[in-house]
Amino acid sequence: MKSVIFDLDGTLADTSADLIAAATACFDGIGQGKPLDAEADALTAFHGGRAMLRLGFERLGVDWDEAAVDAQYPILLDYYGDHIAVHTTLYPSVVPTLEELRERGYLLGICTNKPEGLAETLMVKLGIREMFGALLGADTLSVRKPDPEHLWETIRRLGGDLKRSVLIGDTENDRSAARNAGVPSVLVTFGPSGEAIKALEPAALLNHFSELPDLLDQMID
User: Fold this and answer.
1) Are 158 and 134 a contacting pair, CB within 8 Å?
2) Residue 41 known to be catalytic
3) ω into 146 cis (within 30 of 0)
4) Which of 7, 14, 18, 41 is flagged as catalytic?
5) What is this structure's pTM?
6) What is the pLDDT of residues 152-171, one digit of tens each?
């Protein structure tokens, strides 16, 4: 069957403010203030907790190493888990678009580099978890995007056909995962990368979720 696999952060939902808040809590906890900005650093937020911590330490100009990042990472995850949907919102038209896709016979899945437990919690809080037949996070398997097995296994668990599947994402990581898996990618232009995402040359670009059902009908037989 035909399937559509979605990234989560920056694709279905703008989670950047809550992610930055979690990193900020770490720096507050060690008396280093607020080196990150929710708007300016949104793209870094979508590259994960460790990326935010590294950027924060660099901005502070203090001595740090990966051990310092590793020490703060569990604190970041705990804070984020407790405040996961304070500012997070779905992008416009996500819900009606997902409903339309299901009506057209598409299987829907999530392939995200967010830890599985956090992804499950967020999807439930956003009220859309039941629309997806499979959700695989960063720790579901021993590998994650851009390793193709992460995407392949998501499609398998859905019962989808690899040759009739598309990955919807917002970063170079998603583009690479799709390329490695031999699956076409659609990258959104409304994420933090904006129009610059065109440089990755995906199979297609998505400017608004309402355009997705017709776009996919053109891409998948």
Assistant:
1) yes
2) no
3) yes
4) 7
5) 0.93
6) 999 999 999 999 999 999 99
